[in-house]
Every structure is written in C-alpha cells, then in structure tokens.
Amino acid sequence: MRYKWVRVLFWGTLFGALLFAVEPACTQSTPQRSLLALSKRNHTLAIVDPATFAILARLPVGPDPHEVVASADGTKAYVSIYGGGRYHSLSVLDLVAQKALPDIDTGALNGPHGIVFVGGKVWFTAEGAKALARFDPATNTIDWIMGTGQNRTHMLYVTSDEKTIYTTNVSSGTVSVLELVTLPPMGPPPGTAPPGGQAAPPRPAGPPRMDWNETVIPVGKGDEGFDVSPDGHELWTADAQDGSLSVIYLPSKKVTATLDAKIFGSNRLKFTPNGKLVAITSLRNGDLVIYDATTRKEYRRVHIGTGAAGILMDADGTRAFVACAPDGYLAVVDLKTFAVTAHIDVGGEPDGLAWAVR
C-alpha cells in the first residue's frame, strides 16, 4: 500500500510540473494590433487576433456593455455600461495584462453609450442625462460636461482638434453640432467710489473665454448610427424608424439629401476609409447595405445573418467586421468581393467593436 501511494505522489508531482511548464505557452499575449469585441449577453470583451481570428482572451465587463474604445497607445480599453439609460459606469480593461481594472463611476451621468478617445481623454454620451462628458485618465476625473437638451443623445464623434463634436439624438430625431468658440474677455466692472473718495481704477480685462455653440439639425426619425466622411465634408445618419438616410453638408450644417433607403431598424453606419462607400447595418434584417457615397444610391447588399449592429473597418479598407447580434458571431466581409469570408465567435449578442493598436 505504501508503494502505491508513493507512485501516486510521484505521478501527481510529475503531472503538476508538466502542467506548470506548459501553462505559459498557453497564455497568448495581446498583439500589437487587436480587434476588441463586446458580448452583451456574456458581459465580456473579447481580444481577437485580426490575422488568425483567434480569441486571445475574454475579459469581464459590467452588465449591458454597448460600445468600446481603446486608448491611443492601445494599452487600455473603455466600455460604456448602458442599461437603457439606467447605469452609470465605464468598465476599464488592461489590454496588456489582460485584466479588468476598477470601473469609472459616472455618477449622475446615467446611460453612457457613445464613446471615443481623443486628445488623451475619454469622451462619452450620457443618454439618461441628455449630456456629453469627458474623463481624464491622468487625473482620474470627469473634467467636462455639456448638455445637449435633446432626447437620447446616443452616438458620438469628436474631431481630432477637439473643437467640434457631433451627436445623434435618437428620440428627438436630430443631430447636434457643438463647436468650441472663443469669446471676447468680460469687461471689468465699473469702478466704484468709496464714500468721500475717488473711484477705484478699472481692473484689467480677463483672458478670452471659451464656450460651445450648439446647432441642432432635424433629420429622420430615430437617427442613431452615423459617421463623418473622411474629408470632413459630410455627415450621414441612419434613421431607424423611417428607414431613411440623412446627408448633412457640414460647412453649412444643412441637410442636403434624404435618401429613401428603406433600411428599417438601422443601427450603425460607417464610411469606408477612402470615403467612397457607406455601410449600414439593421437589427431587423440580415443584410449589410452598401451605398455609393457619390451617387447616393444603393450599391450592394451582402447577406450576413438575421440582424446586425456594430461595424468596424480595416484601415486599408479591405475588410469589414460586422457584429451579428442575433446570430452570436462577427461576420468578416471582404470589401473587394463583398463575400462573407469567416465567422468569429466572440460571445452572445456581439455589439460594440474597436481597434487597439500599440
């Protein structure tokens, strides 16, 4: 009996040593360029190798994650925890160590949704507060808030110079354009004369003031997904309730075209990197609809599943990754042949997608 236990101990020790020896080989580090994909059902963020489509890690996030963005250096990801406007946090993930970090509590800024990383800071919409806000990772504080006065301020675009912001306001059927402007300094208050004395000399004027001007542009009903053309001249919105596409000429901030696209339940809209094509998804059907940005006519339909949400383009314009939420996979679409070339299982109800580049 004693020899039996010795043999058990020997083989158990050997097996443990071998397991320990191979464990580092099973750990896959995050590549220099990775695809980030959210699963709303599993409450996870998948880190995907875009070359092999291998899932390198699945990291936990909060309930009902909707949109994700990576920091400029590709080391962290920020996820909006939406809850239909109820929740008030952003999940933060270390993409190098592949672990969750403490959440950001957005407080009264309920319903974070649209999220971008510009100028070293995280900008996000707060649908439940009808507002936009900005989080500074360097100081760990929300350092700016701006109300829109619109219902369901949802998706977000911030220009690289941080001077112009675009949002879609779903229930109001509008687009907000916020522009940072410089105002003249406030004049000094008039001097007041003390009793029996001379008036105090006027104080010098203060520095110029910065403020935001908002232009509200009516578009189609239920506008949600939108994008700005690479040349910055046009903004296209997908209007989910009436199935239309609205085209805004940004220099004049006027709607120049309303296209009867009949894409009901439209969810996201993205320009290809060269600006020639526009891709639109719908939660109601299984087609990725492609429009020609110049002729403003439908160019192609690609059947990808039973419904779709998030869209992510390769920088070279060769592929589009589409989150097919009802089907539980990402569809990889070749933008040269318009064929679905692969499916990637990133978890139930995939939605928000982003690139992380170190």
What does this entry look like structurally?
- The chain starts with a helix and ends with a strand.
- β21 (277-282) and β22 form a beta hairpin.
- The strands form seven sheets. It has a four-stranded antiparallel sheet, with no helix packed on it. Strands 4-5-6-7 form a four-stranded antiparallel sheet, with no helix packed on it. The protein has a four-stranded antiparallel sheet with strand order 8-9-10-11, with no helix packed on it.
- The chain is globular and about 90 Å long.
- 7% of the residues lie in helices and 50% in strands.
- The protein has one helix and 28 strands.
- The model is unreliable at 1-26 (pLDDT under 50).
Features:
1 helix; mainly beta; four-stranded antiparallel sheet; 358 residues
Q: Beta fraction of the residues?
A: over 45%
Number of helices: 1
Overall structural class, as computed from helix and strand content, comes to mainly beta
Q: Give the tally of β-strands.
A: 28
Shape call:
globular
What strand order characterises the main sheet?
Answer: 3-2-1-28
Poorly predicted sequence stretches spanning 5 or more consecutive residues: 1-26
Rg on CA atoms, Å: 25 Å
Oligomeric state of the chains in view: single chain
Helix content: under 10%
Head-to-tail CA distance between termini? 58 Å
Sheet of most strands: 4 strands, antiparallel
Rounded mean pLDDT is 90
What order do the helices and strands follow? HEEEEEEEEEEEEEEEEEEEEEEEEEEEE
